[in-house]
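quick one
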Amino acid sequence: MLATMGRLWQTVRPIRFRLYLGLLSALTASILALLIPQVLEVIVNRLNTDPTAAAVWTAGAVVLALGLAEAAMIWLRRTFAVSPSTQVERTMRTDFYKKVQHMPVSFHDGWGSGQLLSRVISDISMIRRWVAFGMIMLTTSTVTIIVGMFLLIRSNLILSLIFFLAALPVGIIAFRFNRTYSVLSRRSQDLNGDLATTIEQSVQGIRVLKAFGRGPTALEDFTHQAEELRTTEVQKATAMARFNMFMFMLPQFALGVSLFVGLHLTARGDMNVGQLASYFATATLIIGPVQMLGMLFGQAVNTVTALDRHYEVMDEVNTITSPEKPVPVSIADAKGVVRLEDVHFRYVDAPDHVSDVIDGADLEIRAGETMALVGVTGSGKSTLLQMVPRLYDVTGGRITIDGVDIRDMDLMDLRRLTAVAFEDATLFSDSVRTNVLLGADESLSDEEREALLELALETADASFVHDLPEGVDTRIGEEGMSLSGGQRQRLALARAIAAKPTVLLLDDPLSALDTKTEERVTERLREVLDGTTTLIVAHRTSTVALADRVALLDHGKVEAVGTHEELMRTSARYRWVIANQEEEARRDRDIETLTGELNLSALQGQAGQR
Ligand SMILES: Nc1ncnc2c1ncn2[C@@H]1O[C@H](COP(=O)(O)OP(=O)(O)OP(=O)(O)O)[C@@H](O)[C@H]1O
Ligand SMILES: [Mg+2]
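structure w/ adenosine-5'-triphosphate:
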């Protein structure tokens, strides 16, 4: 707990002076509050001897002044602490986002998005509340209690001993509370993250859930999770309530006992009325902070949990980084010869008995060549493609571009050299223009960018965007206009083209297009991409046939390389894969025709009924 809080201090350091000022104000406020009973003692005793109106007015004015000063100090505390604490919140949030952005794809394979979401939002807010309030108040309460105890002892030793003895069990109870509450706090915050993941997934997959009538089941799962969270929250609240009960009861009990004894002492004349009054005023004042300790303690536990969850992500090691001394790469002079040398790759979560997804692949793609990558589904084509821009790092062997190991290049250089159009065309909630020019050279002038946009859209056969309500300025993506699968794919392709890479990696970019459009796009690609090294995952023979050469990926190895005709002649496996894909394509076409006919007959049937 202390180590975690110590780590937080590193983040808080830059704002420490304002926090000190906040703490100082809070302490002054408590001291002023503690002073009031002391003044009270003097006043009560003085009034016994000099009960004039002037004396009463003076006494009242002094107490009022002290009260006002206390209020001013409380206001100052907030002013000093709140703004810098939001600064800490912002810094932590930005660092978290930076970290998550920076982490490789393999990190995101393993982390639920809801977990990251709840960490970046609710955990960090909790930490902010601690910095702004909890941290200062815990210190102040502790100081108030210590000073108050000192004042109590000074005013009457016997009464104080009785008071402390009766309040002693608080320590033991606090220790036990900490143990239970930490566990519950962690569980509740984790469940919160899981719940967020579930919501995110069902919102993303709402169509599937609806179409398959799985809405009720999803709701049931969600209800179950929400119920589990509720149970934990109730357990948490119960633990807190029980703890608070003791924190409220014990000091009151102690106060009662000492009041009883105090009255007795005063009656006997061992204490005067002023002392008794000030004793109880002080004792009442320290009861407030003692009771507050309960709440602050709970807050401290929640904060430590939040910090642990935060640091869990921050401490994840990024293995895909730029080297210390990167080999300089000239983007302008790059040729784009890509070589795979005995490349191995396995996913971290792959079970031991399965062999590597990429299991010793060797391949050379010549400068400016278009190479098609063919293989059965699940053979590792997408995996292989993503290794070139180092979205995943090889687990054996190496990949070079123009003879330089990609791990020796600066990551930014490597990613400027390469561009990818992924299988699932992800678009952002933004204009068509921003989406397409995402990877485009930023030093270009506005006109050049406009021309590039046009060229990319034209090449990817995405001129349909001009028919959208606001042309290239139309907002698309999650919050905007919905596009069809084929339209999205063509925009993703345009985005890869607009990046003007030396090495272009296309993962089945034309799969959603009809054969005619696909042929047109492939032709245009060849024209525009003349000189760009292109590796294209392809399923259709028409795309494959247009490539300069084809590589067959099978069982993690590049089994054969050559032109389509050569491979058709020499490789039985290649013929088999191609025949299979043809078969699939034909089945798709048959299904299309069949559905067309079915629809037609259904319509006719309806017409007949009418
Ligand atoms: N993130 C991941 N974590 C673990 N295993 C994965 C991951 N992504 C893919 N795999 C596994 O790796 C293998 C290769 O997957 P990959 O997506 O590269 O195949 P593919 O050749 O692109 O298939 P397709 O033609 O269907 O797109 C598959 O067996 C798959 O289950
Ligand atoms: Mg794939």
